[in-house]
Amino acid sequence: MTDATIDVFGPEKDALATLAQTARDQLAALRSGSSEAFEDAAGRTLDVVSDLDHRRRARERRVSAPDAPQLGPEARESLEAAALEARQACDALEIALTHAVALGRDLIGSWYQISSPPTAQVYTAQGAVGPARRT
What we know:
The protein is mainly α. The protein has helices at residues 3-32, 35-64, 73-115, and strands spanning 121-123, 129-131. It has a two-stranded antiparallel ribbon with strand order 1-2. The N and C termini lie far apart (70 Å).
């Protein structure tokens, strides 16, 4: 790998590694139930995503310059490997967040049912109509 390749892909690979780590930090905070740690990691993730976009645009400008060095396939493969690692960490976080949201909705629905009075009537074994009771 040449120095020019490191200069072109290095900052973007670093940002991708940081993105993967902040996604893992969010997942760890979600597992531990620490809202402060989750909020901190989410804020860092937003910053890293913005930085990654900036670095991607800068790389694209450098690579498209007329005097840009030729980049070998191994350089692009290392960037793709870093992107894959970040994608896997983000996918794991997405699955956990989707599950957490669904669980939260279920809990809210359960609390709502517990707090609301029964609205139905039932027939008793004797054929009389009575109010529905929670069991």
